[in-house]
Automatic annotation (TrEMBL):
Its EC number is 2.3.1.-. Keywords: Acyltransferase, Transferase. InterPro entries: Acyl_CoA_acyltransferase, GNAT_dom. Residues 179-204 are annotated as: Disordered. It comes from Tahibacter harae. This is GNAT family N-acetyltransferase.
């Protein structure tokens, strides 16, 4: 079994949309306009390719986006620099293979060279104990709760500190070049939407 985590391709958006909307009540439904918005604007939008089949995906946003998610906005109001995991979906036939941890390891690698905090949320109503346990064992801690407007469902807002970021910031982002080394694994995905201005790199 060959597994690759890679950036989504435009022709795969319909497959990702179908996968999202078949995921169940803990994943909010999307439509074609919304999935296209993510393709144009998400800082991280990668799929798990298993033997040529899309087995899952993860989407994440940095700060300073115009994304209107109330949970994303919650973090914008409290953190200067962060990556927010909006959703992760693994197709049922591929669950139990550890793809969730592979995705989170990849997302952490993406985030820790750019920001000090990786964030997300999990539903508490209905309570998703599998997700709560997964995030707890991956180093996330609850930093707040809120009732999602329009859904009347309570969520737990989670954050994970990324200690590697301080080294990256002092050595590269605030170093002589002011940027990361030119390596493929450090590259930002190419988006078709307008570039998002970033605040100066800093702490919380």
């Amino acid at each position: 079994m060959a597994i690759a985590i890679r950036d989504v391709r435009e022709h795969e958006l319909d497959s990702v949309l179908a996968l999202n909307n078949a995921a169940g009540p803990t994943i909010l439904a999307l439509d074609s306009t919304r999935i296209r918005w993510f393709f144009d604007n998400a800082d991280y939008f990668r799929v798990a390719d298993v033997d040529g089949h899309i087995a899952g995906f993860l989407m994440a946003m940095r700060e300073a986006s115009d994304y209107d998610s109330p949970n994303y906005r919650w973090f914008c109001e409290r953190y200067a620099n962060f990556v927010y995991i909006d959703r992760i979906v693994v197709a049922k036939p591929y669950r139990g293979l550890g793809l969730g941890r592979v995705f989170y390891a990849d997302a952490t690698s993406f985030a820790e060279v750019r920001v000090p905090v990786l964030s997300c949320e999990v539903f508490l109503e209905p309570r998703d104990d599998v997700s709560v346990l997964f995030h707890g064992t991956y180093g996330f801690q609850e930093v707040g709760q809120q009732i999602m407007p329009g859904l009347s469902r309570r969520v737990s807002l989670l954050a994970k500190q990324l200690p590697s970021y301080e080294f990256v910031r002092s050595t590269y982002l605030e170093g002589p070049t002011g940027q990361l080394p030119n390596q493929p694994w450090l590259a930002q995905r190419k988006r078709s939407g307008p570039p998002t201005p970033r605040r100066a790199a800093g702490g919380l």
